[in-house]
Amino acid sequence: MATQDDVRRIALSFPEAEEGADRFAFAVRAKGKPGGFAWVWLERVAPKTARVPNPGVLAVRVANLAQKELLLASDQTKFFTEPHYDGFPAILVRLEAVSVSELELLLADAWRCQAPAALVGAVPARTRRRSRTP
After folding, report:
1. DSSP codes of every residue in 43-100
2. Domain 4-128 belongs to what topology?
3. Are 57 and 95 in contact (CB under 8 A)?
4. By CB distance 3.0 to 4.6 Å, which of 14, 34, 60, 100 could disulfide with 27?
C-alpha cells in the first residue's frame, strides 16, 4: 500500500521536480512552465458543487491514450478514470491498491512525460525503465 508520503518522497526524488504550493501536486519545468506529472484527485462528490481533494487517489500523467487504456484494462482495482479525464493522458490511481514499487514506476514514467529531454537521462537506472503495466 502506498501513501501520500511515498508519493511526495518519490516525486521529489526526480531532478527539478517541485511540489505545488497550494495543493498536493508535483511538476517539472520545461521551457520555463511547470508540467504536472502527479496530483491529488479533485473529486466531484455532488453535482454542481466544487471538487474536493481525495487524498486516497492520485492522478498520474501517462505517455498517451493508448498507455492509459492499457493501464485501465490491466487492473480496475488499482486504476480508473472519470469523464473529466476523457481524452486526457492521465489515470487515477488508488493509493491503497498499489505497492510502493508500482508507484515508483508510475511516477517515473509520469515525470518522463513532462521533463525536458536533458533531464530524463538523470533519473536513476532502476526507475528509468519503462513498464507496460505495473
Report:
1. E--STTS--EEEEEEEEEE-SSHHHHHHHHHH-TTTEE--GGGTTSSEEEEEGGGS-H
2. Aspartate Aminotransferase, domain 1 (3.90.1150)
3. yes
4. 34
Q: Which residue has the cell 505545488?
A: 20
From first to last of its 134 residues, the chain has per-residue pLDDT tens of: 999 999 999 999 999 999 999 999 999 999 889 999 999 999 999 989 999 999 999 999 999 999 999 999 999 999 999 999 999 999 999 999 999 999 999 999 999 999 998 888 766 554 444 444 44
Task: Please report, for residues 23, 45, 66, 78, 83, the alpha-carbon distance to residue 111 in angstroms, rounded to integers and kept in the order given.
Answer: 18, 29, 18, 19, 23
Q: What is the pLDDT of residues 20-33, one digit of tens each?
A: 999 999 999 998 89
Cα separations (Å) of 75 from 93, 108, 130, 133? 10, 19, 18, 9
Is residue 117 classed exposed, middle or buried when 0-12, 13-18 and 19+ CB atoms within 10 A define those classes? exposed
Helices 100-114 and 4-11: crossing angle, nearest 10°? 40
